Amino acid sequence: MNSLSLLFLALIALALGCHVWLLARQIARARTEREHVPAAFADAIALPAHRKASDYTVAKARLAIAELVLDAFVLVALVWGGVLAWIDASWRSLGFTGVWLGIAVIVSVFVLTGLIGWPLSLYRTFGIEARFGFNRMTWRLYALDLLKGLTLAMVLGLPLLAAVLALMQSAGDLWWLYAWLVWAAFSLTLFWAYPAFIAPLFNRFRPVDDAALAARIDALIERCGFSSSGVFVMDGSRRSAHGNAYFTGVGRNKRIVLFDTLLEQLGAPEIEAVLAHELGHFRLQHVRKRLLVTLGSGLVGLFLLAQIARQDAFYATFGDAVPSAHMALLLFFLLLPPLVFWLGPLSAAWSRRHEFEADRFAREHARAEDLASALVKLYRDNATTLTPDRLYSAFFDSHPPAPVRIARLRDGAGRAGGP
What we know:
By secondary structure, this protein is mainly α. 71% of the residues lie in helices and 4% in strands. The protein has 16 helices and 4 strands. The chain has a 4-stranded mixed beta sheet. Helix 5 (139-170) runs antiparallel to helix 6 (175-198), helix 9 (268-283) crosses helix 13 and helix 14 (368-381) runs antiparallel to helix 16 (402-411). It is globular, with a radius of gyration of 23 Å.
């Protein structure tokens, strides 16, 4: 094992250790505050609900630690334990070459890692979520979702993978640019098609059938200058008791989606305020900005891959890896998550800034108190911790901590920016 291998292992261990330490802080904070409802929420959230949120937070964090440790062991076994090289050699011995060899190796690795992580995924759904009263997924629905997901991955993902591998092998020094153009076109097409063609494969969508609520929503949309294919209610209750709302799509396929569980939890003024927040993300270009950053990051990533894929030392760092397009692609994306872990706080801070900006937009087009009331109910019903650890939140939370967000809504500050 050379010095570069040791450096990679040290970076992986450092990221793992930091992540586990932050999760341990989150667990300790939840336990410490378990018996104390924050004063700002005392009138709306009872102690039993607060205890449930603390216990739910602890259970999820413990599972996250188990997943991190498992993923680290799998990564080391694949890269330095010779598993990747063995899979590659096995397919070569069967006569696979070129693009077909690359597809076979990459699919084998993702199937293997998926199977290894499957028990913990099942435990998340049928263990933790069920224990805290959130899971409504049946085994039959779970199997159908899995089958549909695998089918989509093959129908959509395999052609994209084949195109990228073919470009890596035969398009010359600028393959990374051509591959990015293919991937960007694919991503934009998928983003456009998802609301109308992919999401309905998994969920049922219907227009809002409450006439008074529909009229209220139409008036809000008109005030905000928004045009879309509509506001839809999704049957999220088939899988979970969690309530949510989201904005998706581009062009004529833009949609605002409300979970049916959300309609059960909130009153009409609160739903209007939540919708105003989601419309804020659109009007303030948050969706477009995030998409552009994703595309830009992809371009940088493929450029870097093109540079390191030429270096024999890159493959020598990882044991018996045979230099090839598919091996470079696999190693790059397997090793990327631990290395970009340290960018998490920047991404989370940017996302929280967007949430504050969308809250401010909602204040201008609906009542701030209605949005605050809606959020408190969602925190309560979704068992969201009211007392996150500050460092953990800075690293991972895409939404502002509950006390900070509610305080800004209620005190009229409405400032955009991180906590």
